[in-house]
Amino acid sequence: MLPQRDSFHFSTKGVPPRERLKAVRELRERGILPIEPMPDRLIHVEMAKWFLPGLGILSGTFCGLRQEGTPQAGSDDLFFGMNVAGEGAVVQRGREIIPGDGDAFLLNTGAGAFAISRPKRSQFLGLRVPRKSIAPFVSELNDETVRLIPRSTESVKLLGSYLSALLRGRMLASPEAARLVVTHVHDLIALSLGATSDAAALAEDRSIPAARLRAIKSDIVANLEDEGLNIGAIAGRHCVTPRYVHRLFEKEGITYTQFVLRQRLERAYRMLQDPRFAAWSISAIAYEVGFGDLSYFNRAFRSQYLRTPSDIKNQQ
Question: What is the spatial distance between Cα 178 and Cα 123, in angstroms, rounded to a whole number?
């Protein structure tokens, strides 16, 4: 039984190498993660788990570890893993696969014991979902052993970018937000496994746009300092058209340009208030957040906050 909490975080960073063996085994004993150290390997763990109704999420970087799973009475969960980067091997009932960077795989936990070995450092995302939540939406979901889903699968790429964006933000800001996350993840898993035509149409309406918008917003926020952050570049990175991006933002009652401007102004505001940037000039802060025109920055800032950048900076 997993601990009853919304999330769990653990890292071996700062733990002396000689004490990591004990720390890792405690994770297994407490029911957090069934991992065992691999012989003669450097142990490293940096992980987080989230527990949502109908969805468990594991995200982390692992090295020198073997994760093991055995069938449990009353459990018929599916484990959808995503090998973000690094090396590893997945084995179930004699079948072995070696996912490459970006590849995904499916494990049916009721089909038999499995093991995921990570002798070298690898970055990983794991999703545990009830089979009954996915099976009705998939064309064929039998009791086969481990199954590889290549990184070229569009829904796998979208699921990875969506989860990465979520994990950088406040994923569980509210119960309503959590329910939407679960729905979107279920839809994207079904698409990755081969959704029925009805399920694909439903996902196209309710989950794909939301997942793309979340990933696009995260991309924008991560690259605000790029003065050339135009909609064409963003659309190209996400394999959609600029018009599609415009429509995503329009559904939220805002334009792409307004969103970028708001994010840049908010970051500038935070920097102006932050003592760590007290020695920075206003122009340096403006250029740092992606403004190429200081006069435009000053006008936009005053329009947004009804105060000048100097007013905010002089409050320090």
Answer: 24
